[in-house]
């Protein structure tokens, strides 16, 4: 397919392809953000379907909707899908589209590495779900505790788990390094670290968490792979290994991962609430500092997941104290959000409703979490449905609520069109009610002793009615999602024209057209304050009038050039995915994937970065 290069006011845009090939070869951070978002939303729906089947199986005692083995696979795949294929990449979608716009950059630091990270993510997702094709899904929970992962206790589904997560780890690390460099080196003139939007700060913190946390999981997965493929002893007690070692490796990654999932939502609502409260964020420095503190402390609390494994009293005391301590910076954020709302001129449009809903439900999840800093409480509630309720109040009531706030907030910037307010509010209220109806009663059945991860349960335990209520709640959430899908598809092409700044925004992304041009900013803005656009529009409210010039007809864009489209990132990613997939068949065959990756990296390295003549 022939390439073409279109010009806008003389700007030399990146050479691109048309149609499907245009999406495969794109290195535009905005299009990559859309790819991440659409792919993640698809897997969000898949994960929701898996959860629906799980809840239908537990609707009443003795149900046989699915077999016990399929039930184990469904709750495993639900967790893996929601964590690695939905919430994380939905956050990545915002990072890709919004961060360069918020910091006044024309793209990320490494556009082709950015494209590579998406395609590796896609192939990792396909490998993780590859077991559907061979009827051998992972069935050991998202935590994959030893010795369940030994070959005598689990089949090839665990191999899909290992190889899929390894590939997804490559994607996460590539993206994280890219955003660290982008944020630290490509900010607009005058945008100091303490003038960055909070969402940009949270993205930087999350990227650092990924760089330090994911390699620990990678080490564990490599050891697990060698244990399964080559009978190494790492987690096999019969050969002198230690099953608890896997738990340490997994949770050293797993607890920072919880904050990798929640911090994007915290950053999103920290930008939305001031916009719709019509006042600057209260205690900006404390909000940023608390995010840094959360990241630091997240590496010191992993063993509170292991209080029932026989740790020493000293270890239990240390991790109990650290778990109590990490609640402080989280509470600081909540108090700052509430103080921002207090006395503000609140505009309760859909993004603001989702943000307030986030605060309400996330606080419940936080309170039920800090309870487990107490070892006696944790011991009593370990592996009960109380834990299921807690994590869903954090990840659904927190992460998902915050993500939908961001979708409604930035949809006009992505598409140039507004989402329908009425449909958006139906979506919010059905989701808010359904979420509480589904997960609220789980606190009670957990206290009543219902264990998690059980296929069915006997009648007469006092769990029947509450499980029926929980299942009904799932269908309320589904009803809300139908409103969202109708809203999104209708608004993408036929929504009300948004304009450049539909919310009276504060940050740089609202200074340019919607959707943004290829080059983002015709003139790189100069920033003089923390609220650059507000100060520009309302000089009476601030001391400065920063330059936030966007793309306009009287700006000479002749000197702007953008990097070429490239298919080598996708080819390199194919090599990574193929190598991992063939590793499950025969290690020798996986060399072919390695060769493709080497060829891709070599060609990528010598490919011109920009159009000829620039």
Description:
The protein is mainly α. The protein has one domain (29-560): Cytochrome c oxidase-like, subunit I domain (Cytochrome C Oxidase, Chain A, Up-down Bundle), CATH 1.20.210. Helix content is 63%, strand content 1%. It contains 18 helices and two strands. The chain has helices spanning 19-25, 29-57, 68-102, 111-128, 131-134, 157-185, 198-230, 243-277, 284-297, 313-341, 350-370, 375-381, 385-415, 421-447, 464-494, 532-537, 568-583, 590-606, and strands at residues 7-8, 11-12. Strands 1-2 form a two-stranded antiparallel sheet. A hairpin with a 2-residue loop joins β1 and β2 (11-12). The protein is globular. The two termini are 24 Å apart. Mean pLDDT is 91; it is low at 1-13, 542-547 and 549-553.
The CATH class = Mainly Alpha
Second CATH tier, the architecture: Up-down Bundle
**Mean of all residue-level pLDDT scores:** 91
Within CATH, the superfamily carries the name Cytochrome c oxidase-like, subunit I domain
Tally the structural domains: 1
Shape: globular
């Amino acid at each position: 397919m022939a390439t073409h290069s279109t010009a806008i006011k003389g700007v030399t845009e990146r050479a691109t392809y048309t149609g499907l090939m245009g999406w495969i070869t794109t290195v535009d951070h905005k299009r990559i953000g859309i790819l991440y978002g659409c792919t993640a939303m698809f897997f969000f729906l898949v994960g929701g379907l898996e959860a629906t089947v799980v809840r239908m199986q537990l609707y009443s005692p003795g149900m046989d909707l699915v077999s016990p083995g399929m039930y184990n696979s469904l709750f495993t795949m639900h967790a893996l899908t929601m964590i690695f294929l939905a919430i994380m990449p939905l956050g990545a979608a915002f990072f890709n589209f919004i961060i360069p716009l918020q910091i006044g950059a024309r793209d990320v630091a490494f556009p082709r590495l950015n494209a590579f990270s998406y395609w590796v993510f896609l192939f990792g997702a396909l490998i993780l779900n590859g077991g559907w094709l061979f009827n051998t899904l992972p069935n050991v929970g998202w935590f994959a505790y030893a010795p369940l992962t030994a070959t005598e206790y689990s089949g090839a589904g665990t191999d899909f788990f290992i190889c899929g997560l390894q590939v997804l780890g490559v994607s996460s690390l590539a993206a994280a390094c890219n955003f660290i460099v982008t944020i630290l080196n490509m900010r607009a003139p005058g945008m100091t670290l303490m003038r960055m939007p909070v969402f940009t700060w949270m993205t930087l913190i999350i990227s650092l968490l990924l760089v330090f946390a994911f390699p620990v999981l990678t080490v564990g997965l490599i050891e697990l792979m060698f244990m399964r493929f080559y009978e190494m002893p790492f987690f096999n007690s019969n050969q002198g290994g230690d099953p608890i070692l896997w738990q340490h490796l997994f949770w050293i990654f797993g607890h920072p991962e919880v904050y990798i999932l929640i911090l994007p939502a915290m950053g999103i609502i920290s930008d939305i609430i001031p916009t719709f409260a019509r006042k600057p964020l209260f205690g900006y420095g404390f909000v940023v500092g608390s995010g840094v503190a959360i990241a630091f402390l997240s590496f010191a609390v992993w063993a509170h997941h292991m209080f029932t494994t026989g740790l020493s009293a000293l270890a239990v005391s240390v991790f109990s104290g650290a778990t109590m301590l990490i609640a402080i910076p989280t509470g600081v954020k909540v108090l700052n959000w509430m103080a921002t709302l207090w006395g503000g001129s609140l505009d309760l449009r859909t993004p603001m409703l989702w943000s307030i809903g986030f605060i309400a439900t996330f606080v419940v999840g936080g309170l039920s979490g800090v309870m487990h800093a107490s070892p006696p409480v944790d011991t009593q509630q370990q592996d009960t449905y109380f834990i299921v309720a807690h994590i869903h109040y954090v990840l659904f009531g927190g992460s998902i609520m915050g993500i939908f706030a961001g979708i409604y907030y930035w949809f006009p910037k992505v598409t140039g069109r507004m989402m329908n307010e009425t449909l958006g509010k139906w979506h919010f209220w059905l989701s808010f009610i359904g979420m509480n109806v589904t997960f609220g009663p789980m606190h009670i059945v957990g206290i009543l002793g219902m264990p998690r991860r059980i296929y069915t349960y006997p009648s007469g335990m006092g769990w029947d009615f509450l499980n029926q209520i929980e299942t009904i709640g799932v269908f309320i959430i589904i009803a809300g999602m139908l409103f969202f899908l109708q809203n999104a598809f209708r608004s993408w092409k036929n929504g009300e024209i948004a304009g450049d700044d539909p919310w009276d925004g504060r940050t740089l992304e609202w200074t340019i057209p919607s959707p943004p041009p290829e080059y983002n900013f015709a003139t790189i803005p100069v920033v003089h304050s923390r609220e650059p656009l507000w100060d520009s529009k309302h000089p009476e409210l601030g001391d400065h009038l920063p330059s936030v010039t966007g793309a306009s007809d009287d700006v000479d864009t002749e000197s702007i050039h953008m990097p070429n489209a490239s298919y080598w990132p996708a080819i390199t990613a194919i090599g990574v995915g193929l190598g991992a997939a063939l590793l499950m068949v025969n290690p020798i065959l996986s060399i072919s994937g390695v060769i493709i990756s080497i060829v891709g990296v070599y060609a990528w390295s010598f490919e011109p970065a920009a159009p000829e003549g620039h």
